[in-house]
Structure formats: structure tokens, C-alpha cells
Amino acid sequence: MQLSLSGELGQTVRRTVAALAATAAPAESAGSPATPFEIPKASPESVARAIFDGLENGEEDIFPDPMSAPLAESWRGGAVKAMEREYAAFVAAQPVAA
Fold it and tell me: pLDDT per residue over 16-43, tens digit each?
């Protein structure tokens, strides 16, 4: 997949992806010195591709590599995510003063 974004739209997309990438949860990626021993690592390209796929599918939380993917279901059904949904519903229900 090749993207060519320029101008204001490109800047907006880059800022949005940067913000959303913070919610992506790769366990390890190639070049990441997180552990002193060898474990399977996803390539930066595969992580980026999974993040873009997740964005296209409208996923709120993206688990872009084989090590983090098994966590997806428990995260989406967990207490923290349930609390996030409750807070989002509360905020959406509150009128905003102009």
C-alpha cells in the first residue's frame, strides 16, 4: 500500500495517525531494545500496515502484531474498556455551553 498525502489534508492525517498510534499496542517491533533476549518481533512495516488496517476498519484499539493480538479480546471486554465506554456515554450526554 502506498499513500501520498500532501498539504493540509496530509498534515491532518499525520497528526491523527500519530495520536492514534499511541493507542496501538505492539508488544515488540524490530529495532525495539525492550528486552535483553531474542523474541519474535514484528517488522515496522507490518505494524504500520496493521495500524492502517485497524484505522480503515474503525477499530478504537489496535493490536498490530502477533504478540499483542491475543490480548485484544480481553482488552475490549475488560473493566477498563467498560469504564471508558461509560465515561464516553456520560460526556456525550452532557450539553456543551458555547
Answer: 666 655 555 555 555 556 666 677 788 8
**51 is in which domain, residue-wise?**
7-70
Nearest to 18 by CA among 7, 29, 30, 10: 10
Report residue 53 as a C-alpha cell. Answer: 488496517
Question: Residue 85 domain-assigned?
Answer: no
Is 34 part of any domain? yes
Beta strands in 20-67 (DSSP E): none
The mean pLDDT value of the chain amounts to 76
Q: Does 79 reside within a domain?
A: no
Tell me, yes or no, whether 84 lies in a domain.
no
**Cα of 58 vs its chain's centroid, Å:** 10
> Torsion over CA of 21, 77, 82 and 23, rounded to 10 degrees?
-10
Q: Where are the beta strands (DSSP E) in 1-98?
A: none
